[in-house]
Amino acid sequence: MNVLFDHQCFTGLAYGGVSRYFFDLMSSFSNRSDIDFELSLLLSNNEYLNKASFSNHFRYRQLAHVRNVNRAASLLNRLYSLQRVKAGRFDIFHPTYYHRYFLNSIGKKPFVLTFYDATSERYGKQYPDLGEGLYEAKKELMQRANRIISISEFSKQEIVRFFPVDPDKISVIPLGTNFQTSSLNQVKTSIDFPYLLYVGKRGLYKNFDKFFSAIRPVLNRHPDLHIVCAGGGTFTASEQASFQAAQLADRVHFRPITDDSLFSLYQNAQAFVFPSLNEGFGIPVLEAFSAGCPAILSDRSSLPEVAREAAVYFDPEEDESMANAVERVLTDSALRKDLRQKGTERLTHFSCDQTAQQTLEVYQSLV
Q: Which CATH class is domain 181-347?
């Protein structure tokens, strides 16, 4: 069997949950003899692909911050993927995001679509930057797809809620992580103070501003406690002003990350806090479990499904709920130990090889 993956999730971004998912999927497939695949990609600065033997793309790191260069790279990648689709030398096509560029060229070849979350449907009017206009693209792609993969039961229910799709067309395949094994060359953190760890983007539905507001009383009660924000871009002027106004600017820190440095940040944190209003799965939860980091999570969307009893939960729209959950974990060493043990056990229910096997079974059902 030969599968064609396209460029979409690997264009433009060095890191990201979707590109991590497809990188891990292809990495697992590369160790198997019952599937061959091609990644149609010319230009990318994706960091995961640095470790990949299955991609021969060109990097343009020095020009990555030039908007027109990224637009040109995206166009060239799309034209190349379209050429590979038209060539038809595959059994299954698996696009990596929601662009419809291939629909008029794929003919009768089957394709599988992975659905990640309905964040733009839930919050598109509130946060137009999320891509409210994606609805029509998602809708047409899911109607045309031969099979839909949902990364959680929660996301499957979101598909059924927002889109006219037959539930029987949807296969739920949870994600896994190779975070621990991909972080063998660990970078020791130079942080010498206790901290709460926040990972990834902070804007919009990620709810960091609400988290910071809620956590201020906890920081005041624990004057040695800091917040470390890993990845997600440097602090905006608005964020810095908020830190200054709270007189906490010297206790909130940004750290750029690689897999190696991120593993160390999880490993040394008092706890990982995830206040997001909406996640399709929540890979950072598995990353925290991999590093033995206690998890304090929003009780929304897929997060309780993924972590179950291996986390402490809070209402992400209630300051008191958030603060109480953090305070509880900070002041109870036995609870932190219990969360580490439960996180390690919960992690055994997820693996990239299992994700790959279940995905292969979906492909095989179509040929």
A: alpha beta
Give 96's Cβ-side CA count (13 Å radius): 27
213-259 residue pLDDT tens: 999 999 999 999 999 999 999 999 999 999 999 999 999 999 998 88
Element (H, E) at 114: strand 112-115
Helix, coil or strand: residue 358: helix
Do 225 and 219 contact (CB within 8 A), yes or no? yes
The predicted-structure confidence for 100-113, as pLDDT tens digits, reads as follows 999 999 999 999 99
Q: Which alpha helices (DSSP H) does 205-351 contain, by range?
A: 208-221, 237-245, 259-268, 283-290, 303-307, 319-330, 333-347
Q: Taking the domain 2-176+352-364, which CATH number applies?
A: 3.40.50.2000
For residue 28, give Cα distances in angstroms to 6, 10, 23, 134: 17, 17, 9, 30
- CATH 3.40.50.2000 domain range(s) in the chain: 2-176+352-364, 181-347
DSSP, res 10: G
Helix-then-strand count for the chain, H and E = 13, 12
| pTM of the entire predicted model | 0.93
